[in-house]
Design goal:
- With about 350 residues, the chain is mainly α.
- The chain has one domain.
- Helices cover about 45% and strands about 10% of the residues.
């Protein structure tokens, strides 16, 4: 007899494997016309199933579930802010932003290029921690200094604008969301639906060897490998639901996107080591400052390549994203399996926000 705990565990592994396959593909090519019609159709069906069913994780206590909501913000009534609602708010602010060199519109911050690069690297870590399907973990005490350093960077990005900073995204009520209510237990029907959609989508993918032989650049080999794992899982075979980029990474005490190589050997990057690197990289460097109307850095191209201008909206949205990373790195922070509703954050960080951050 299948118990609810058995079902939840099987479903959680299936959910992680299916979401990992889609996340590994990167951009949502299944929504366009680059793929064969049948492959695109099955992937759209799988995306819909992943959005609609729960992950199988134990729900978080309280109104905010970091597997479904921002960890750093609250809605007006104290509830959680769904990922898609947060992204829509950020995009609206960037869309209304005239850019760093506009003569009016709120100004810009001047930052050193190393600051810009560091923010980008940190937000790569946020994107990886919000990868749909990522299994839950509890962050260790080792992350305390890194979380503090990231929070300090967020405050420094806000500082040039003083009291003109935007209110936190969490001050707005969340927009209505589709998909399951956070914390809803998984049912047999959820698991059956996801199994059927996952099987069809995985079978529509070429193997790694086929993709390489046919030079099919519309698929990523990581997605091909994930599809092979997914096929084994839906077939009842042993296979991991999730794989880190490197097998020795432990998300509760290492960065999931950072790794260090020396002499041909690699090793995970610990929270403690990354915090020390971060403080050393920024030590003695000027903090972000407000750009004057005639600031040389606003020229195109700027005369000094070591300085860049970041628009007010991009800086303030960036600060909120750093706040989110700091919240997820806080010692004791607990997260269940990340729901597929987090996928818009991945697209935003890799696309719209990165373009805004580097527009100057």
């Amino acid at each position: 007899m299948t118990t609810m705990s058995d079902l939840a565990e099987r479903h959680r592994r299936l959910y992680s494997a299916a979401a990992r396959m889609m996340w590994s593909q990167g951009d949502p090519v299944w929504r366009g016309d680059r793929w064969p019609e049948e492959r695109a159709r099955t992937w759209r069906a799988l995306e819909k199933a992943l959005l609609d069913v729960p992950t199988g994780s134990t729900p978080s206590a309280g109104p905010v579930d970091p597997a479904f909501h921002l960890a750093s913000g609250r809605a007006g009534a104290g509830g959680g802010i769904p990922f898609d609602a947060a992204v829509r708010g950020w995009e609206a602010r960037l869309d209304a932003d005239p850019g760093p060199s506009a003569p009016v519109g709120g100004g810009a911050a001047v930052v050193e290029a190393v600051w810009q690069t560091t923010v980008t690297e940190l937000l790569d870590e946020l994107a990886a921690r919000l990868a749909p399907g990522r299994p839950g973990c509890v962050v260790t005490q080792d992350a305390a200094d890194l979380a503090g350093a990231v929070g300090e960077m967020a405050a420094a990005l806000r500082a040039p604008f003083g009291d003109r900073a935007e209110p936190p995204v969490g001050s707005a009520a969340p927009l209505p969301e589709g998909g399951p209510e956070a914390g809803r237990p998984v049912a047999e029907g959820d698991h059956d639906r996801l199994s059927q959609a996952a099987r069809a989508a995985a079978r529509a993918m070429p193997s790694r060897a086929e993709a390489e032989r046919e030079a099919d650049f519309s698929v990523r080999v990581a997605a091909c490998d994930a599809a092979a794992d997914l096929e084994r899982i839906v077939g009842g075979e042993a296979a991991p639901g999730w794989r880190e980029r490197y097998p020795d990474v432990e998300p509760d005490r290492h960065l999931v996107w950072g790794y260090r190589w020396s002499g041909g050997a690699g090793r995970p990057l610990s929270f403690v080591e990354r915090a020390a690197e971060l403080r050393a990289d920024l030590a003695g460097r000027p903090a972000p400052r407000a750009a004057a109307p005639d600031d040389p850095v606003l020229q195109d191209p700027p005369p000094d390549g070591s300085l860049v201008a970041v628009s007010r909206a991009a800086a303030l949205v960036g600060a909120e994203l750093l706040d989110e990373l700091a919240a997820r790195l806080a010692p004791g922070a607990s997260t269940g399996t990340i729901h597929f509703t987090a996928y818009p954050v991945h697209l935003f960080l890799k696309g719209r926000f990165r373009r805004a951050l580097t527009a100057g």
